[in-house]
Amino acid sequence: MSAFARQGSFFATLRVEAWARLQRFRKKLSARGSEIRLIGVAALVGIAAGVAVSAMSWISKAMHSLIFGIPVLDWLSAAPLLDRLIVLSAPIVGGMVLGCLILLQARRNMRPIIDPIEANALYGGRMSLTSSVVVAVQNLISNGFGASVGLEAGYTQLSAGIASKLGATLKLRREDLRILVGCGAAGAIAAAFNAPLTGAFYAFELIIGSYSTVVLAPVVVAALLATLIARLLPTGSLLIEAGHMPAIMPGDFVPAIALGVVCALVGIAIMMMVSAVEELARKSAVPPYLRPLLGGVAVGLLALQTPQVLSAGHGALHLNLEGNIATGLLIQIFLLKAIASAVSIGSGFRGGLFFASLFMGALLGKIFAMVVGAMSLGGLTPASLAIVGMSALAVSIIGGPLTMTFLALEMTGNLTVAALVLAAAITSAVVVRTTFGYSFATWRFHLRGESIRSAHDVGWIRNLTVDKLMRADVRTIGSDISLDQLKEKCPIGSTQCVIVVDADGRYQGIVHISDIHTAAPREPGASILDFLKHKNDILQPTMNAKQAAEIFDRSQSEALAVVSDMIGRRVVGQLSESHTLRRYSEELDRRRREIVGEAV
């Protein structure tokens, strides 16, 4: 063969191999479990989150300008010389508008709204985009008319809803969909605060519920791109100047840790106050669509005392950090803001306590600095303790100690302050977890009867129900059968046990065949009812595998009957302990492998 022919054959082989590799790469990209594909989708989610946050922020400021007559770029809570009639009436009008939407929503029988934490904990990341848009609109109305709520709830709900819809359209796996919801929330918080690390750790700690190398790349990509989009579409960012601080001495951590304890206790009190207002509203005779109107009246009256309680409080945070404010006035603003936030949320205005907790924490930190000012604070200034308090109170209410530590770091650019913030944040988290046990979001789930304490995926447990595990072809016998008849029907070795029902087919108990064959000859007058076991140890089809395992452990039985309900007690199946534990272990291992990125 000539050299030219050999060269042509070599290049032809290269082309075939390159084409084969390209096809394999395309298959990897299109595969449902492809990490590269997930990163690409996360990038789209980050861009969408950045646009959504910028749009909502611009609409909110436009509403403030139109309603309250302030410049578009000004913060409402820091605007001077507001018309007192508008300050009083704007939240009332906002409550009326929101009440109309609530009434319309009730008449259309819309499904309950699922937030990102609940979606990832129970529903494998599935959220309704329509419901998310509704939440965003309600949040804009609440914030735009001056209710004491921030926009972060709307940011994360809309961005996570977009992510969930995109992931469902692409038919992503359950774990990938949960990661994508986390990417949406990460992008929302990153864009809102111009803080990509904060957004990423918000997703890790609060939305996904865990950290692994698999979730790192998509979440960080989404947070970075959302931040970039928000910078290209500027609507005002929150930057805090901590001022010059000398090197931290070991003694400087003592007041920071003490402030963390104070913030934890205050955070618990605020969460309880919000819940008390909600409970009072539920027990009242006022219909849900009229509650925002009454809440608007209360917020308007509080705003007449100081407009700093209006909206989220971005401008008020700057005013109180940079100004030399008297301690009594700081305490007054703190109390008014806490009451306004509790009334706003409790009466039905849509929003959250994310930024409100930052604002109130900054006030609390400055109050703490002034109260203990007679004591030596070392190199700590009131401004630095305000930043520590800001993060510590946010940790007690929202959760996420690393999230709030990175927020303080990215907003101040001061690593010295971040070390103090981390100490206070961990202290606050430990105190809240050991004394109260919930963040604001999970506390509200608890009040609704849910047992969710984080976004950790527990939905698969609820889906693994008894009706999916049981055998439907069960063997039952009537309670009127004689022992000799039973021995004839069920010789030793044919089956371990049989289920006994009465004449109406209601469950009576379980009889072990070995007991009948060994004990019956010694008890000639005995009835089958004398050998019944587990009369009240029964399963129901809606129970999950974990509940079934607990009943097996308590009853010390290898198999139990499944009945339709506790009243009818119709036998619909039978379930063994070994099969339940095996399937439960298989699903646990499956979730573990999904988290660490192994093939499933």
Helix content: 55-70%
Oligomer: single chain
Q: How would a textbook summarize the main sheet?
A: 3 strands, mixed
Going by helix content, strand content and strand pairing, the class is: mainly alpha
Distance between the termini: 50 Å
Q: Would you list the SSEs in sequence order as H and E?
A: HHHHHHHHHHHHHHHHHHHHEHEEHHEEH
Uncertain residue ranges: 28-32
What's the helix count? 24
Arithmetic mean pLDDT: 83
**Percent strand:** under 5%
Strands of the largest sheet, in order across it?
A: 1-2-3
Rg estimate, integer Å: 31 Å
Give the total of beta strands: 5
| Anisotropy-based shape | elongated
List the helices and strands and how they pair.
Blueprint: H1 3-30, H2 35-68, H3 84-107, H4 116-122, H5 129-144, H6 152-169, H7 174-193, H8 196-208, H9 213-232, H10 253-283, H11 291-305, H12 314-322, H13 327-346, H14 354-371, H15 382-397, H16 401-412, H17 415-435, H18 440-447, H19 459-463, H20 466-469, E1 476-478, H21 483-489, E2 497-501, E3 507-512, H22 513-519, H23 545-555, E4 559-563, E5 571-576, H24 577-596
Parallel strand pairs: 1-2
Antiparallel strand pairs: 2-3, 4-5
Helix pairs in contact: 2-5, 2-6, 2-7, 2-9, 3-5, 3-11, 5-6, 6-7, 7-8, 7-9, 8-9, 8-16, 10-13, 10-15, 10-17, 11-13, 12-14, 13-14, 14-15, 15-16, 15-17, 16-17, 23-24
